[in-house]
Design goal:
- The protein is an alpha/beta fold.
- It folds into two domains: about 5-100, YbaK protein; about 130-160, no CATH class.
- Helix content is about 10%, strand content about 20%.
- The strands form four sheets. The protein has a three-stranded parallel sheet with strand order 1-2-5. It has a two-stranded antiparallel ribbon with strand order 3-4. A two-stranded antiparallel ribbon has the order 6-9.
- The N and C termini lie far apart (about 60 Å).
């Protein structure tokens, strides 16, 4: 039987977890999954929807988003149906989080990282994506490039690039 660690990832109630950011945390880089109802009941002593970092029945690793780590006098689940703790403070009511990290989605209107404006959320399209594929496909397709001595060298990766034409955009050469 493989022993696994249950992680409690905390974001403010008005924010959403960014699973990509969470997946980059040390300890979660090799993949993670959401806990089952049975695992939640075993570690927290309650059903999903009432979880909190205080009074878990088994040890959990607590990761707080930066905005949560900066909070004081906050409200959190009490691990009991229909109950919450109020006025909670890190260090007094519960230990400091094991990890503090940026694990949430940004919200439109927040200050930009450079401090020169606010964030806007807009739709976009992917115009390229780099995959690290090693030599599996480059060797099979005899994909090579010429090095600085003009000698053929096996390509060690593959770049897939998609070009998209947008009818409202163009240059002197056309749309």
């Amino acid at each position: 039987m493989v022993k696994s660690t249950v992680w409690l990832l905390l974001v403010r109630g008005d924010h959403q977890l960014n699973e990509v950011k969470a997946g980059k945390l040390p300890g979660l880089k090799h993949g993670f999954r959401f806990a089952t109802v049975a695992e939640i009941e075993s570690h927290f002593g309650c059903k999903p929807g009432y979880l909190g970092p205080i009074g878990t029945t088994k040890a959990v690793k607590v990761v707080a988003d930066r905005t949560v780590a900066a909070m004081s006098d906050f409200v959190c689940g009490a691990n009991d149906a229909d109950f919450h703790y109020t006025g909670v403070n890190w260090g007094r009511d519960l230990p400091e989080p094991d990890v503090v990290a940026d694990i949430r989605n940004v919200v439109e209107g927040e200050p930009s990282p450079d401090g020169k404006g606010v964030l806007a959320i807009q739709r976009g399209i992917e115009v390229g994506h780099v995959f690290f594929l090693g030599t599996k496909y480059s060797l099979a397709m005899s994909a090579t490039y010429l090095d600085e001595r003009q000698a053929a060298v096996d390509a060690d990766g593959l770049l897939r690039h998609r070009r998209h034409a947008h009818p409202r955009r163009g240059d002197r050469a056309g749309p």
